[in-house]
Amino acid sequence: MQRVVSVVAHLGFRLQALPPALCRPLSCAQDVLRRTPLYDFHLAHGGKMVAFAGWSLPVQYRDSHTDSHLHTRQHCSLFDVSHMLQTKIFGSDRVKLMESLVVGDIAELRPNQGTLSLFTNEAGGILDDLIVTNTSEGHLYVVSNAGCWEKDLALMQDKVRELQNQGRDVGLEVLDNALLALQDLGAGSRGSSPGNSSSEKPRGEAGRAGSQGQSAPGGRPLPVRE
Question: What is one cellular component GO term in this UniProt entry (predicted)?
Answer without folding.
Answer: mitochondrion
